Structures are given as structure tokens and as C-alpha cells.
């Protein structure tokens, strides 16, 4: 559909040029979130030559603090690409982003496929498909002239602020702590700036994973073994400046660090 591709091309151009995205023209702006996800899929095809293959997903708006902050009362998904998944300790140029921020998350890596044909999924079902957890720093980018006025369909179309992630070492599911009790702390330049628990993510991060699996299944799409899913932030987004050193500590899962130069 021409409208869908037109919107995807406009967003892809803004992202490549690191140009803040304005409201899309009326003739191509996605009219609802379903259309936003159609644009997102077209955008993924356009971005892969630059960002590498789609290796997983991020889920936004899974905690009360983030739903209030963004004024969106339900989860939203976006893509995670191969070339913007980093290991803990990485140093990244702040100039690579329009306005970079981070979120403190629990990531999962899947041991098996979650096929659309198996839906509907429950938290218990998807838990069995998890190979390991990672302490995770989602990198987000406020690449908008004014995100508050764009509306959820356009934010969804542009991967809902997603700009990559930093992962700490894997913790196999069979030895991981109960995620409900995992406290995450966000420390910037040695000062704690936010904290939350696994229970803040839709009651349990596995609920977020089940939401994503069902959301994709409704579009006839699968989750695949080896994919990474960022389940949502335990803390409100922390916006950074060049020179900031970020350490996220998640009890029982370890920590993840990055410097934005």
C-alpha cells in the first residue's frame, strides 16, 4: 500500500539523517496503531541494510511509571536489530543519537520458537520457552520534534523510541531468581536515578513476553529461538548527555554498563 510505504520511507530517511521527525503529512500518517505496525514492518525492511537483521523486539509501556510518562495505557512493540545490540562495557558516541536515553530492563533470550499457530499464549507457557535472562539497558532515542503530539500510531511506526540495547552476561532460566523480586537500580555518574522491580512490568516480565507473542501471532508472525526480547523498563526513561556513565544493577541477574561519549 502506497501510504504505508510512504510513511516508512519518511521515517527511515529521518532516522538515517538523525533529523528530528515532525508529524507525518496527513496523507501518510498511520490512522491507528494497527496501521502503525504495518508501517513498522515496512520500515524494518528499509532499515536492515543499515542496521542488520531483526534479532528481537522491545516492549514499551509495560509499567505504570512508563504508561503515565507516555500517556499510553497499554504495551507497544518495536524491533531490535543486530548491529545495535552491544555488550556490557561498551562506549557509544552520544552524537549517534538525536537525544539518547536509557531504560533499565530484564531481557529474555528464547530457547524455542513461539509460533503464531500456538496462540493464545500465557505467561506460564512463554516462561518455558525462555533459555536465559540478561540484565539489559535499552537505548532509546527521542528522535522527534515533539513526541507528545505525534500520537501512538506514529511512535509505534518508528519502533517506539527503540535505538538498540546493551546486554550483560546471560543468566540461565533454571538458576535465575524469581523475577518478581528482582530490584533494578539505575546509576548515572555514580548517583542512583531510579529503581523498580520485576513486578512493575505488567505484574511480571513473563506477562509482557506473552503480550508480545500474542500481538505478533495476531499478525501471523512468530517469535524465534535465539531472539532477544526486552520486556519493558523498571524505571522512568533517563535522558543522557555526552560523558555520562550508566550502570544498571539488577539483583540476582548482575549488572550492565555503558558510557556515552
UniProtKB/TrEMBL annotation:
Single GO MF annotation: hydrolase activity
Keyword annotations: Hydrolase, Lyase
The keyword Hydrolase is annotated on this UniProt entry: yes
Superkingdom, taxonomy of origin: Bacteria
InterPro entries in the cross-refs: Fumarylacetoacetase-like_C, Fumarylacetoacetase_C_sf, Hydratase-Decarb/MhpD_sf
UniProt domain Fumarylacetoacetase-like C-terminal: residue ranges: 85-260
A Pfam family reported for this protein in Swiss-Prot or TrEMBL: FAA_hydrolase
Entry protein name: Fumarylacetoacetate hydrolase family protein
Source organism of the structure: Bradyrhizobium jicamae
Upper lineage: Bacteria, Pseudomonadati, Pseudomonadota, Alphaproteobacteria, Hyphomicrobiales
